[in-house]
Amino acid sequence: MEEEAVYRILVADSLSPKGIEILKGEKEIKCYVWTNFSPGELRATIGEYDGIIIRSKTTLTADIINASERLKVIGRAGIGVDNVDIQAATRRGIVVMNTPRENAVAAAEHTIAMMLAISRNIPQADASTKSGQWERGKFMGVELYGKTFGIIGIGNIGSLVAERAQGLKMNVIAYDPYIPADAAAQKGIPLVTLDDLLSQCDFISIHTPLMEETRNLIDVEAFEKMKKGVMIINCARGGIVNEKALFQGLKSGKVSGAALDVFAREPARENPLFELDNVVCTPHIGASTGEAQENVAVAIADQIVDFLINKRIRNAVNIPIVSPDVFPVVKPYLDLGEKLGSFLTQISDFAVEELSIEYMGTVAEYNVSPITVSILRGLLIPYMGEVVNFVNASIIAKDRGIRVNEFKSTTAEDFASMVTITAKGGGEKNYIAGALFGTRDFRIVQINDFFIEAVPEGNMLLIQNYDRSGVIGDIGTALGNRNINIAAMQFSRGRLGGVAISLLHLDSFISKEVMEELSQLPNVISVKHIEL
Ligand code: NAD
Fold first, then answer.
1. pLDDT, tens digit, for every residue of 248-292?
2. Rounded distance, CA 479 to CA 484, Å?
3. Is residue 286 part of a domain?
4. Longest dimension (CA), the chain
5. 1 within domain boundaries
6. Same-domain pairing of 366 and 258
7. Number of domains in the chain
8. Is the CB–ligand 1 distance for residue 28 below 6 Å?
9. In the annotation, is 237 catalytic?
10. Does 101 sit in the ligand 1 pocket, CB within 6 Å?
């Protein structure tokens, strides 16, 4: 008779056989592959499993997760975890893990393939040749050798693309406001401003996440700044390059070619860009190599085995590495740390090179390293997205040249516990302090030289202004005219008539136009939007 396995794992979406082999090779694991079920069927049976592996097809709603009595781990073979209700999983103590780095080589190689495809008209020449024409004169190409290649976003994939393009003897430059120039220089990539990149490059490739800040980053104005004849490659996310503006650019001859793996709306079965001869398209297959699929399958299977058998957590997106007995005590600090880190990034106009974190009061009695990890995760997520998890946050920060210093002191002047962070970079610095009120509530208590007491959550505006009469009224009127309700407002000033800050919590999202309008108001020095 078959021995009863200890852990039951359900593979719910198709997974490369190498991953399944790893699970089946473990005596303490019994692996079930079942990929064709309705949500109701999954809900009815999920209670039988200790772990589930999914890709993007299966959605794990709160309803399904709440029915999972013995589930301990959800493994996503790939990056995106939008199909998992993370909060519901966290509430039940279920670890959600992903495999954020395994498809980078595939995406980088696809980018290079796309650049060569447009520079030498390969798809067009292929179609013409196969249709019986022999049009040697028609497909005059452009060489990559010696050309200036601009990479927007030199994270994981952008760096691999840069290395490969350097191998093709291109002159690689990059724009990435969140990476210190030293870290880029170590990779042999000079950092330039976005305007310089746009005006100098023969080829431009985008490798940022899609976020509010990068949506339509390459718009009509950006195309206007480019060289005539530029070629554009987007294998990152649709929506970063504005498709209408790209269409116009291609039509007018300003852009001589574009290669797109991603589209604003996917699946892209129809798109005006498809009508243009100088556009090469692929259906979001940047990560679609046998190796990448195998890599994610092997990685998730290894991580699940490591978690269930060796009790080691890797690439968790929801639960930091804290022992269960101290977790409830440390949890509020983890949340506070993540919020402070995120706030700091969103108010800083410089790439952070050094982070000094001070733990004061009761918090200093604990092992604070998970809190530091939370701070780093908060700091990195606003511009890197969910690729940053509790396990890789420190490594990513180090790779990006961020030095982290931790200090502890057992006394905090005004609060039982306080966490302060100073971020420095490019000769500038920002400081933020947060404190715990009671056992769970936390507040931001200082921003640079200004004392404040604000709940770090929601949609906020940090306005720096001269302390003159009428400023607050002007801000209120400008927002009121746009029907934007102020839910709460804190005000702090140094000396009478000097510089002051106002931190506003708003009930609705604020557009770039309103930000612009606010920054033009008399006596307003700067306006920052923060989303927590
Ligand atoms: P990453 O987080 O490692 O790197 C992103 C980089 O963009 C970071 O260095 C960040 O500092 C930078 N950045 C953020 N905002 C910026 C801005 N406004 N201007 C300039 N730079 C900015 O991410 P990654 O793993 O390298 O992935 C890059 C992109 O590729 C993502 O959009 C990802 O979704 C996409 N991707 C696509 C495929 C595909 O199938 N086509 C496969 C994998 C990844």
1. 999 999 999 999 999 999 999 999 999 999 999 999 999 999 999
2. 5
3. no
4. 84
5. no
6. no
7. 4
8. no
9. yes
10. no
Do residues 420 and 526 share a domain?
no
Burial 261-271 (b: 16+ CB within 10 A, else e): bbbbeeebeeb
Q: What does the DSSP 8-state code read for residue 387?
A: G
The answer to whether the CB of 183 is under 6 A from ligand 1 is no
For residues 488 and 504, give the distance between their C-alpha atoms in angstroms, rounded to a whole number.
6
CA distance 350 to 105: 29
The minimum-distance atom of ligand 1 relative to the CA of 175 is: 20
Residue 414 lies in a domain: yes
From the candidates 237, 314, 377, 400, which is the catalytic residue? 237
What is the tens place of the pLDDT at every residue in 391-445? 678 878 988 899 999 999 988 778 888 999 999 999 999 999 999 887 778 999 9
In a domain, 54, yes or no: yes
Report how far apart, in Å, the C-alpha atoms of 125 and of each of 120, 197, 278, 280, 402 are.
9, 30, 11, 12, 47
Are residues 180 and 264 located together in one domain of the fold? Answer: yes
| 378 shares a domain with 241 | no
Give the tokens for residue 444: 């931001």
* Best mutation site among 383, 386, 389 for ligand 1 pocket (most ligand atoms within 8 Å of CB): 383
Residue 84: give its domain's CATH number. 3.40.50.720
Pair 268, 409 in one domain: no
Q: 4-51 pLDDT, tens per residue?
A: 558 999 999 999 999 999 999 999 999 999 999 999 999 999 999 999
**182's tokens:** 């030293």
Instruction: From the CA of 100, give the closest atom in ligand 1.
Output: 25
What's the domain range around 490? 458-532
267: DSSP letter: S
